[in-house]
């Protein structure tokens, strides 16, 4: 080998270099944000290849998103100065699992061309099964069952392994049976759902040790990014692959850890819930997830309801170091596996368990070398200090040192605005300023806690003509529930809008299925009239069955009434009336699936957004302008995303709006998960801050406008937890401005005072909390509206929570 150090190694610090060059045996890189963990992984692949230790096809590298995988491939090419020949197995858990599954589909009763169902298909299928079992879909919504099944799959549980107690929570004890028949139906349809890509892969490995051996032999090196957020199924899958292949014919127990000789998965013991364990939170609502899947942008393959399972709990010590692990160490010597992660960035709802995952690494992979990286290469001094100080408020963490050799740079700014509209205006102006100063918009990101917050920014950007892209999910007005609501409004506005009418004719379900719609279409085509007019005509005939005819007539009467109302009520009120009287809001209120609350929140935000327009026509025109924009087509655009989607990414300029109690930390997370939930929210804040290279800008609005009434909000406690030395409090540049003269009266000035003075003395949070307490019910109401119910998924078992708060 050439004596000269290759370029990709020369740029690394000694610890990074050790992580790259320790090719034999298990390696864990446990290090904070921006320390170069992902870079280490990329260099490691380059090193393996250039040392001739493996061919590309013998390396398995798991990234957090498919986008990250593409990026890694690109960098790899640059490092090696050539395109990588052959295909490394680079992708998310699910994309790689899917690839293996296709190759051996027949062994799990599928064909290699099996379909991967989207959520809608999944729900439709589950509805059929509910019907067949005579289970009332109103009382036991299909979406809830989908959530449960997803949760089980993410915990690696096949139908026979779901603890009876859990299976019983759905459909009067029929949950387990439904899961089993769902799996059977999938096989008949030659289909798999998202969770199957991994679960069925695990089953394949367990039931066919020869196949497992084949992959164990193939993958000479395994690399995993964002290890702190792996779920149980992913963990089990990794463990299976991470062993050296045993000899053919060796007893199964020597190949599969914990294998008891029974045909499937290791033994389970029902164990009590780990104290302090939190339910999974989810960055995104359901339809966002659809698009995550479509775009291949799956958050570590753990998109929803992931939860440390009972099976896994039994395998894991209740608390690191407290209980001896019951999962045996690997039977065969472990492979060259390298995992990188940061306990302070575990944001997918696995409190403790993720820390366990990392702490247990040494046990799972005996002889593991643990490497810590302490130098942060991403952020300036002030940003790093602020982020480190904030996360130090968490109790359950390993704790680590982080230093930077970068300049202190600009202080983290905290800006209070009057309301979210002003916040959006201020941020819009600052971005324009950055642009004028020569910054590329690709170096600018806005990270929000809840997806409904995006609406304000999208509207603002359209007004400003500022190109933006939404990452990791649909744009606000493209969400399913928003499109449904808009379809009602469009049908009112223009009875000839067939597309809109067709979209909602049977949403919520009113017995007007495909056959009815087909018949209306035939009618409309023959007579060359709009669908709505066809419906009006058909209702007068006896072509429809009495039930369908009755409900179609009701719908027409409703629309006629709403159109008449349009003359006498405001368009905002009209929207509320329509969503209410059509049963659309109720549909989501009754829906006990995890994303329902977020959808209701988005609907409220939609109605709120209408207030800014004079009438329905004006609003709909604005929407068509927004929708017309081809998001992402521009070379240069501001990135808009949730904090969850921002993991692993970095930007020069990061805007963090909405740091208010109830919104961030999320009230619902606090209510449902208490202290553990708060710590996860804090990690999320830490992830947000550590995305920034040069500028981190925090915002809070002192007022939130909900249905036309103003409510006072409290700045987030996380602001209180920032070190004063690294933070600068600035004035909002958004027109009316913080402390400006827009005439909101003295109460506004109070806010300024308590904000300003409490920073160094008693804490603005406490000061404002006292104020808020005096507001009693009104404050409650605020939290229910603004803080509750945005898009994070609670546990599927919290189905009893009320969505209608
Ligand atoms: P996160 O925890 O947020 O995923 P990370 O630990 O994966 O962060 P990277 O994204 O790999 O960190 O690196 C952060 C930034 O620092 C990147 O821009 C990377 O190129 C740069 N960097 C990492 N190591 C070095 C180094 N030795 N010299 C110069 N730049 C480096
Ligand atoms: Mg990284």
Which helices and strands, and how do they pair?
Elements lengths: L6 H4 L3 H8 L5 E4 L6 H14 L8 E4 L3 H15 L8 E3 L1 H11 L11 E2 L2 H14 L9 H13 L9 H4 L7 H14 L2 E2 L3 H12 L1 H10 L2 E4 L7 H10 L10 H4 L30 H9 L15 H6 L20 E6 L11 H7 L1 H4 L4 E3 L9 H11 L20 E6 L2 H17 L7 E5 L5 H11 L3 E3 L9 H14 L4 H7 L9 H14 L3 H9 L6 H20 L5 H11 L2 H7 L5 H15 L5 H13 L9 E5 L8 E6 L10 H23 L2 E10 L1 E4 L2 E4 L4 H4 L6 E4 L15 H13 L5 H10 L3 H11 L18
Parallel strand pairs: 1-7, 1-8, 2-3, 2-6, 4-5, 6-7, 9-14, 9-17, 10-12, 10-13, 11-12, 13-14
Antiparallel strand pairs: 15-16
Magnesium ion binds next to helix 3.
Protein name: DNA 3'-5' helicase
Catalytic activity: ATP + H2O = ADP + phosphate + H(+); Couples ATP hydrolysis with the unwinding of duplex DNA by translocating in the 3'-5' direction
EC number: 5.6.2.4
Features:
single chain, 805 residues, alpha/beta, Rossmann fold, PCRA, domain 4, 3 domains, 6-stranded parallel β-sheet, 34 helices, 17 strands, 9% strand, globular, disordered C terminus, binds adenosine-5'-triphosphate, binds magnesium ion, DNA-binding
What profile does the largest beta sheet have? 7 strands, parallel
The side-by-side strand order for the widest beta sheet comes to 11-12-10-13-14-9-17
Distinct ligands, ions and cofactors found in the model: adenosine-5'-triphosphate, magnesium ion
Tell how many strands the DSSP assignment holds: 17
Amino- and carboxy-terminal Cα gap: 67 Å
Helicity level:
40-55%
Structure classification: alpha/beta
Query: What would the principal axes of the Cα set say about the shape?
Result: globular
Number of domains: 3
CATH class of the largest domain: Alpha Beta
CATH topology of the largest domain: Rossmann fold
* CATH homologous superfamily (4th level) name of the largest domain: P-loop containing nucleotide triphosphate hydrolases
Number of helices: 34
Strand percentage: 5-15%
| Spans where pLDDT lies below 50 across 5 or more residues | 251-327, 734-805
Question: Roughly how many Å is the radius of gyration?
Answer: 27 Å
**Can you tell me the CATH architecture of the largest domain?**
3-Layer(aba) Sandwich
Average of pLDDT? 77
